[in-house]
Each structure stands twice: as C-alpha cells, then as structure tokens.
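FAQ: What does the model actually see?

It sees only this:
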Amino acid sequence: MPRRIPRTILDRLRTPRRFPKFLMGASVCVLIAGLLSPLSQAVAADTPAAAANDYCGSQCSDILPAGQNGNATLAQILLNQAFGTQPAHADDQLAPYGNLASGYSALTDAKINDFFRDASFGVPADQVESTLKPAGRTDVTIVRDKKTGVPHITGTTRYGTEFGAGYAAAQDRLWLMDVFRHVGRGKLTPFAGGAPSNQGLEQEFWRHAPYTEADLQAQIDSAVANNGARGQQALADVRAYLAGINSYIDASDSGRYFPGEYVLTGHKDSITNAGTIEHFKETDLVALASVIGALFGSGGGGEVNNAVSLLAAQSKYGVAEGTKVWESFRERNDPEAVLTVHNGESFPYATKPATPQGAALPTAGTVTEEPLVYDRTGSAATATATGTSRSATASALGSARRGMSNALVVSGKSTASGHPIAVFGPQTGYFAPQLLMLQEIQGPGLSARGASFAGLSMYVELGRGQDYAWSATTSGQDIIDTYAVELCQDDTHYLYRGTCTAMEKIEQTNAWKPTTADSTPAGSYRMQVWRTKYGPVTHRATVDGKKVAYTTLRSSYLHEADSIIGFQMLNDPDYVKSPQTFQAAVQHINYTFNWFYADSEHTAYYNSGDNPVRATGVDAEFPVWAQAAYEWRNWTPATNTADYTPASAHPNSVDQDYYISWNNKQAKDYTTAPWGNGSVHRGNLLEDRVKKLVTAGGVTRAALTKAMADAALADLRAEDVLPKLLQVVRSSPVTDTTAAAAVTKLSDWVAAGAKRKETSAGSKAYADADAIRLLDAWWPLLVKAEFEPGLGSDLYTAMTANLPVDEAPSAGHGPTGSHAGSSFQYGWWSYVHKDIRAVLGESVQGGLAKPYCGGGSLGACRDVLISTLKTAAGRTAAQVYPGDDLCSAGDQWCADSVNQRTLGGIKHGKISWQNRPTYQQVVEFTSHR
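And it is asked to produce this:
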C-alpha cells in the first residue's frame, strides 16, 4: 500500500525540470528517504475472502512478469530511478519467469511453482497480505496475497463485485490504463509527451481505428441493443467497473498516492496537488478495446502490397508464369504446413477462386500511400519522427500482424493421470507495467481467475474457471478486405453504388511540450483520415485508366465492443460447463483468435472472428472494385454488418489427441492472411516436441512445460533449416579454412540442440556463441544471394515487403521493437527450406515454382552458400549486434535479452531471451462439477 508523504517533505519537493540532473543532487537521498510512510486507501475488512469451488486440486499455476503492482508514487519512481529499488510486487514474478530458461531441464511437477505461481482460488489465511473494502462498501472485499499481491475480489452483489474489479484495476494499472485510452483515441503525445515512439504508437492505431466519440458510443449502444439480457448486464457491469476506477482516482488524488507519472508529465503538481486525473467513461473502454483488437485480433490486410508484388512477378516472368511464381511464394494452403486441427478435416475459407471476379489491380508504378500526418512543426518534423511515421504506416497496412502467443494441450488419453494438461498463454510483449494484469473475481454470475488487459478487467479474459481453463493465440485469418473506390469530381469524392459521394474527413491536431518525463522538444502535427462507406483510405492509384482510392474494411471495424459478451460468458460458471458451451461462448468474440479449453475430462479448440461471406469469385488476396457485385454478402454500410460464415465453418475440434498453436495455420484449406505458413514455421517447434510426448504417453505437467520451454530457446532456422544448408555445403569437401571452421561451429551447435542458451544461469553469455553469431550474420546474406539473382531486385524487394527475411531475437520488429522476446514468426525459412531440398533432389510438396539457389545446380548453390558463409564469418560481433540504448555493440546476450519496455516511471532488469507467452498457465484439473 502506498505510503504517506510527510507534509514537510511535500513542501520542499519540486518537480524537476530534467529528471537525470535532479537525481544527481546529493540531497535527493535524504529527500526520498522521507517519502515512505503508510497511507490507508480504503476501509479494512475483518476477514479474508473465502475460496470458491476449486476443482484444480492445487494443479493450476500461472505467471505474469514483471509483477502485479504497476502503479508507483512519485517517491517510488524517484527511488527506482536513483537506486533501482522496486515497489512491492512490482517485479517479484520476473525472476521465476526468467529462471525457467536455465532451470527447465530438471523440472518436475513438484518444482513447477518454483517458476510459476499457485493459481488456486482464494487465499489461505496465513497468506493474506491485505484486506480492504473499497470506498467503505460492504458488498465487496479485495484480498491480496503475500507472495504476488494479486487481488482476489469477492462480492455479494454483482455491482459490488464489478466495483471492486474496477477499484483493484486502478490500484494496479491506473497510469497504464490512462496511457492506452489516449492511444486508442490517437492522443498519446499531448498526454504523455512527443517522444518518437509515442508518435508512432498513436499514428499506427489511429490509422487502424479513426473513431469519433460518436462512433465509440454507437458501439456501446449496438452491443447492448443486440444482446438482450446479457447486453444489459454487460452495460451494468461496465458502469460498476467504472465507478470503482473513478472511486480510486478520487481517493488517490485526495490522499496523494496517485501514480507519480501524473506529476512527471505535468498533469499534477507535487506541491499544491493542482491538476486533474480525468475520470474514466464508457467510451474509454471501447478506445482501449480498439487498441487490443488492432494489436492481436485483426487478421488480414496487405492486399495492395500483394498486388504490387504480383505485378512485379508478372513483369519479370509474364502473366501466367509470374502468377505461378507469386502463388508459390504466397503458400495459401501449403501441404507441408503444420496444422492445429491435424485430423485431416477441411475448413475452406478465403481460398483462391477458380475464376476471379472484380479484381482492381493498380497500374504498375501508380500506387502511393495515403499520408496520415500533416503540418509538422518542431520535433515532429525531425528525420527520426518522420522515420517513425513510415514504420507505423508499414505496420498498420501490412498483413504481418503481431500474432504471438502459443498453446500446448494434451488429451487425457496420453497423460499420466488420465486428465488433460494444458500449457498456454498470450505472447503480448513485455512492458513496465505489463499490458495484462492478474485477478480473481468471485461474485453472482462470476467465478474466474486469470489475466485481463488493463482497463478491461471487468471479466477475466484468459484464465480459469471453477473446473475449466481457457486461453487464446492470434489466428490471423482474413477479415480485412481492400476496395478500390473510383474517384469522381475530385480526390475527395467517390462513386458509391452509382452516386458521387463525398468522403468524410476525420482529423485532429496533437501538440506537446517538454516535461520531466519526456524532454522531447515542443512539436505538433495534424492527423487526417478520409473515410468512405468502404472504410478509411489507405492508398491512391490508377486502375484501368481510372483514378481510385484504396480503402480497407474489416469486419470488426465499429464493433470492438461486441466481444464483451463472449468474455462475460467465459466468466459465468452457470454457462461454461463443457467443451460445447465453451465453444458457444467464444463464438461471440469477433477478434481473430484461436481458443483452447481444458477441463478434467475434455479438451477443445475453436477459431473465432467474424469471417465475412465474400461475393462469388472475389479473391481476398487482392483489391476489388467497390461495386455492389463484389461487396460482402448482405453488407450494411451504416452499421458495417454482413453475413458471416457459420460456426461450423470455423476450424473447431473436441478431444483431438493434442493441439498446438504458435500462430500457425489452423486447418486444411483455411487460408491465413499473413505470409509464411509453409514447411517451416515456429509452430513446428511445438509440434515436434508434443507429438513425441504423446507418442510415448504418460505426459505430465512438467513434461509439457519442458517441451514449451525447450522450444522457447530454439533457433528455428538452426533446428529446421540449417541441417539442409550444411548438407549442401558438405556435398563436396570443404577445403577453405574459413568456411570449414564455420561449418564445424554450426554443425556442433546443431548437434548440441541449436539453442540460444546461456552457458550457465546468469552468465549472460551463450553456449555456442560463435555459431549463433555466424547464423545471425549469414541468414540475411544467404537469403539475398539465394533468391535475388533469380527474382531480380524489383521482385525480391516486393516479396520482402510481404514477408520479412528474418525475425531473429535481436531484430527490432513489431510494436514492441527490440528485446521483445517473440521471434521467428515471420521469415523466409520455408522458402529456403523448400528451395534447398529441391536442389538436393528431395521430394517437396508445394514447392516453389522455380529453382533459385544456384539456378537449381547443386554445385552453384554450394558456391553461393560458401561465399556468403565466409562473408558472415568475417563479420564481428559489433557488426552483427550494433548496440542500442540498452546494450553496447557486440554484446550478443544483451542484444537478444528481454526487456520490459517502460510505459511508466519504473524500470526493471533484463532477462535472458525466451520465446514464450508473457502470461502463461499450467493446468491439470482433477475433477469436474
């Protein structure tokens, strides 16, 4: 609980103009030391909350680094910045999470909670750290445990329960919630400062969802009106939740224990307490939801990039042959792709039509991106700022969405106990404070424990109920289409069903000035989006001699609030009682997710999302004309509703022998929007390990966790592609000494397991460090040398815009940038794998249309590989790992390391690289209701 700051100290404390210089003052040590005495936030309760029915038998565990406490007072922030001290429960889950990388090999069931935390319901009396009744209410109690500080919320009324959930959320994540409601509205820079990263974040998400306040409110009204009693209950829950948040805001403001970031960003005065922390309102939660949906649950897009690369292929090879080449790289339904539903069942979706209709491919060279940012001033006009804007645009408009998350689920038929086992969780990046937060919520119609996104924790979104657990991974099927609207009159009018119609201009101006937290000089810009009935404009081009604007339309546009009903159902113990009722619940979630379920007897899987029914002949890969004949079936523009594929058409399954998912292909014939679902995918790292366990039988929680942890340290390129590359290289004796030495190092690494693993716990140095450096340097060189001569520079460049060549741990990719953990999701590993196998004369299903390495000649291919390997061997560690704000050049371990990206004033230490879920559960239920 935050501590009271003595009045005499407050009188002397001044908000520093420059944070580092302020901390250099010797008096700061004395000043900070006086800032730590207790302050009561709420009325204490007499007894801890009682545990609800729990059928897990102490075999449910979870973990969420860095820690539950994501709020810090000004005093705590100053202590952290000056001396590295951490507020209570700010980082107490980071060490056990990080230690799994070095400790998993000796893991047993008895040791699981050395690396995870007990996720049983309730808190034993001797483990209660604090008990309070927020705002003096008698109908809800918040108990926090000593080990993690997780809130266990128990209410006797529905309103009180949700009030407590809101109060606890604000206790743990108020600043973060405030940051992301501003991100969702595209107003982060005026709130938190004009740092280039803030500019990029608000631009990326506002382009994706340029909503007005009326749009946000309309989503709420629609979700309530269309869902009967559950819609009404959701609105009541939201209002109670908001009341709890706002009660904490008022209490922390008057008591002066609000997050210190409000002072450091100039919203509050540390002396007079002047300034305001704005209350939260219903539309804020929709803005928050739009951010989460954009990050993790909106598959599709990239049709314009697809068209550009198809035209490049046709220009290189001719229309017929170029189309074949393009399709072979696209891998829409690659027969060698790893599948989640692996029993052979087909779920056709977004497949290539036999006779495409309505395609609106641009004339080559006419495509331009629609600008988002105008009228830059000050620091918004720097090269760094404009570069950040380019990256944000590429991320928003491409199909390579940040998928992440994995799941390993094994049927009871293959476990030692006869009960299903699941190890699963979302891979949401690493932040300080974390985007997710933990809670247990028990009240009328509510019984669950797990993780929720901060500010949306009126329900547990990923976690466990009384006798079941669930989780999700990003699926990425295509719910976004691009339309070519023909312009008329001028560049801001278009033909809509035969009528020249004005586009709607949505704009806002953001300005910022330096603060203690962000010293970025003053600047401003105006963001502008033109909206049409077919969605926001993303590009301009010429098609068949006509000027067009390309727009992007997704089925979840204007509908982020709808998914609240599915999450409400998942928390309702009277609704979810079986695999079938679980599947029925997640069918109400319109985000593109893979959902997994386990209870004591059954497992289940379902792929969610509003998959639009496209007009006959429309190819979802490319832009189509904005004409009635090519619109989604029964599409209503005013509400953006249409016909969607039925639940039975979504990949789904009950009690398959096992399930794996790491954002791989869901099922046979089910096309996913991102490129790269071929013969090598990071899903193979799980598939190979879990299949081996299931074949042997007797799977335990420890064994399945070890499989996950082992995959989390694997270099996908080294495990699945490097052996084939070395086979080509060794097809003749390697006489060059430099190449031979490199081959030996790489071969030894493969033989040792191809892991990026420390020599010992905490050594901050990799075993096989030279081999890892070699492959990191070699991969981009060999891919370019293998493919660019055959494809030509233009086509090679166009193809790399669809799918990046590499995604090694040290690469700066995705919205989290470097040090993000998640790796090997997108890359050219399948292309290399298929091409090299063809050169070796092996059988390849779904091979590339043409040979590339050495033109298909084994000897010439070998020469290419050896030449690039020698070049890679000459690259120093400093060249391969050039350093950044966190790491010095040449520090390989640091370049890979996972860092909690600061979204507030508290910093945490780095941990060794792992490629695994941020929040993770290990569950095995022993009985059922």
